[in-house]
Description:
eight-stranded parallel beta sheet; seven-stranded mixed beta sheet; 15 strands
Amino acid sequence: xxxxxxxxxxxxxxxxxxxxxxxxxxxxxxxxxxxxxxxxxxxxxxxxxxxxxxxxxxxxxxxxxxxxxxxxxxxxxxxxxxxxxxxxxxxxxxxxxxxxxxxxxxxxxxxxxxxxxxxxxxxxxxxxxxxxxxxxxxxxxxxxxxxxxxxxxxxxxxxxxxxxxxxxxxxxxxxxxxxxxxxxxxxxxxxxxxxxxxxxxxxxxxxxxxxxxxxxxxxxxxxxxxxxxxxxxxxxxxxxxxxxxxxxxxxxxxxxxxxxxxxxxxxxxxxxxxxxxxxxxxxxxxxxxxxxxxxxxxxxxxxxxxxxxxxxxxxxxxxxxxxxx
Length: 325
């Protein structure tokens, strides 16, 4: 579809996003974004935060010039809750607005998709046992994404609320057609597994490096606040390969990595970019027993390419509310 002949700008709802962006396609879109980023055909700008009384305003921008889209995501954070999360998508062909869309679900889906891409490139190949710490809103898509790129033998989940983890296990087991078990401790969830998802809002470590078996891949996706951390320094120490979706953004936000950097466990120039691994510029896992860590902050180019999929499908299906410009 030529953007010069596309209809006027449209608005898309959360329901439109969910309908038009299944996880399989979200993973392919995010992988394409990282491939273009690694090849120089896309750009990403780290998240900026503007403080106001009672909260923060968040702004992040990126462009996939190879596909012809650029855009930004903006949202408020007020007393611990997100508000007004929106993505605005533009054409790189002519600079005009193509779409505005509600982006809570878009963010949830693309965050899971990024962990799916990292798992595809960094985790061992073959049937896997997955351990997940965190059973909230973001935990749903983290598990769905990993199940999309790997054959899953079993899933063990833990969160502090016993009722919530039992409900999550039952619902996700039914949704994904997998054996999902709620367990009583974080250690029981991750000991001896192949893949670990850490997706909590904890300010202190919930994952201990001492629990990890050789060959484990970790997706740490729940923390993008420099003062908070989900994983301990030993997790970073044991990781043979540490990968970020954006090293520049991680330097601002990755509370998981900062203590390890301060203690000299790792230097920022040792952290690899997921884009370079996807594009083939950097080798990922080299042997089965390596421990790999993906530190996910959530970057704008993911939002742009995911939003582009939603926009194209909406136009094809005649969906969306016309905007007066």
